[in-house]
UniProtKB/TrEMBL annotation:
Single GO cellular component term: cytoplasm
Pfam families: UMP1 (PF05348)
Coiled-coil boundaries: none
Keywords: Chaperone
Family note: Belongs to the POMP/UMP1 family.
Species this protein is from: Rhynochetos jubatus (kagu)
Name of this chain's protein: POMP protein
GO biological process terms held by the UniProt record: proteasome assembly
Encoding gene, per UniProt annotation: Pomp
């Protein structure tokens, strides 16, 4: 017992060395890569509104549906949205989400993504085994 207390008494405490203040370095191993895009403010006042357009439209539709048909209708529709969002293709294949578009009523609309979103030029393409293992958390 003397040996353990003797070692603890004479040991030097180790302080975590970290720079602080305006000249603090970014610890890449602990915090990952920094993204300038996340630190930028919106460049136009309508940018935030456009990013949340679908969410705001869904909320308005659910409120209207609740007022017209009662509480069961938006709950049923939200349950269907969640079920449809869970069904996807493998990570290395492009998923069109046709069922979600049909539920939202966007299946007959032509949008920006329909014309300029070519799956053959997608950055998602890669080695299938590595992408599936990454999605499942094995890597």
């Amino acid at each position: 017992s003397r040996g353990t207390s003797y070692l603890l008494k004479d040991s030097i405490p180790i302080i975590e060395f970290s720079a602080s203040g305006p000249f603090e370095g970014h610890d890449l191993l602990r915090r990952g890569f920094t993204s300038v895009k996340n630190e930028l403010l919106p460049s136009h006042p309508l940018e935030l509104s456009e990013k949340n357009f679908q969410l705001n439209q869904d909320k308005t539709n659910f409120d209207t549906l609740r007022n017209i048909q009662g509480l069961h209708a938006p709950l049923k529709l939200q349950m269907e949205f969640r079920a449809v969002k869970q069904v996807q293709r493998l990570p290395f294949l492009h998923s069109s989400n046709v069922a979600l578009d049909t539920l939202r009523g966007n299946d007959e609309c032509i949008s920006f993504e329909d014309i300029l979103n070519d799956p053959s030029q997608s950055e998602v393409m890669g080695e299938p085994h590595m992408m599936v293992e990454h999605k499942l958390g094995f890597l």
